[in-house]
Design goal:
The chain is an alpha+beta fold. 48% of the residues lie in helices and 10% in strands. It is elongated, with a radius of gyration of 24 Å.
Length: 334
């Protein structure tokens, strides 16, 4: 395919771009992506906001050209290029003047075809079948605007019983999982775990799971901490997460922590152990170093930080610095 695109692009740039558009949306269909991913693809490939609406099935998804979902937008302009999604009342448009051009027209056509597949599978026209990992069905359950009928269909297709608590789990890379609350969690990845709720309350569980994921660490020496964080355990950290918007400048304590971390490979793991272990002797045992070695390390670290970490106030400040560091690193939504 890459060779074909290269040859086509050399002969006709628009033809090469069109083949890439076809391949892109074909991949989304093969991976059972949801409507948001499809509209995002249309917006990014077309270089302008794209919007999909379906009044019959309660769907409204609008994504900006940078990939961010923002459902609110200007009233649709009749002059914008649009296409009716076959088989229903859904319409997809690009928020830019017509005509869309060859590539824009191909984006509309292929995105509409992909959206039809998802709408039929998740909103009631195609026969439902069990697929516990279908991202489009999960998207329906996590969409607070999805109609109850669509939610019920998605839950049945995912094999979720309606009479047991369920929860949402946010994984790194923006992947969502839903399942019974008693099921084991995915292993080996960063994860934020939402609270156990009823099926209709899954959007709230998802929102809290995403917050928890922002506070999950890599679990490495350069990013020490738990890889799985439960929203039920966040307490006031949820308020802190809400106060750190995407793109916010790092707090001075975070910059101090980064500066200290660049001084030695053991620095961040040592400071994390000092911040969270019950005592400094317990921290030394956790790090498998002698107590005097830990004291030497902290004596090296404290001038770099600018505060002591050997009293409760200093350890709390250090804990907040680690939490803020993760929030600044992962300020966006999954």
């Amino acid at each position: 395919m890459r060779d074909l695109v290269g040859r086509l692009s050399a002969l006709d740039p628009d033809a090469g771009a069109a083949v890439q558009v076809i391949a892109y949306f074909d991949r989304l269909v093969e991976t059972r992506a949801g409507l948001e991913a499809i509209v995002r693809g249309a917006a990014v490939l077309a270089g302008c906001p794209a919007c999909l609406t379906d009044s019959e099935r309660g769907v409204h998804v609008r994504v900006l050209s940078d990939g961010a979902r923002t459902d609110a937008g200007p009233p649709p302009d009749p002059a914008w290029p649009r296409i009716a999604v076959p088989g229903g009342a859904a319409v997809l448009w690009l928020e830019r003047p017509a005509p869309p051009g060859p590539v824009g027209a191909m984006v509309l056509e292929r995105a509409a075809a992909a959206a039809r597949v998802v709408l039929d599978r998740t909103r009631g026209r195609a026969p439902a079948h069990q697929d516990r990992d279908d991202p489009a069905l999960v998207e329906v359950l996590l969409d607070p605007a999805a109609p109850p009928a669509a939610r019920s269909l998605a839950a049945r297709a995912l094999g979720l019983p309606g009479d047991v608590p369920v929860r949402a789990v946010a994984l790194e890379g923006g992947v969502a999982r839903v399942g019974p609350a008693h099921h084991p969690l995915p292993e080996g990845v960063r994860a934020g775990v939402g609270p156990a709720v009823t099926l209709p309350d899954l959007p709230r569980s998802w929102a809290l799971a995403r917050t928890a994921l922002r506070l999950a660490a890599e679990g490495t020496p350069q990013d020490p901490g738990p890889r799985v964080v439960h929203s039920d355990d966040l307490g006031g950290l949820a308020v802190l997460a809400a106060a750190v918007p995407p793109g916010a400048a790092p707090h001075p304590d975070v910059r101090a922590l980064e500066r200290a971390g660049s001084e030695a490979p053991w620095m961040l793991a040592t400071l994390y152990a000092a911040a969270y272990a019950p005592s400094l002797r317990a921290a030394a045992a956790e790090l498998t170093v002698h107590y005097s070695t830990l004291q030497d390390r902290l004596a090296h670290a404290e001038p770099l930080l600018g505060w002591t970490v050997r009293d409760p106030q200093g350890r709390l400040r250090l804990q907040l610095a680690f939490a803020l560091r993760r929030l600044h690193r992962d300020a966006g939504s999954p």
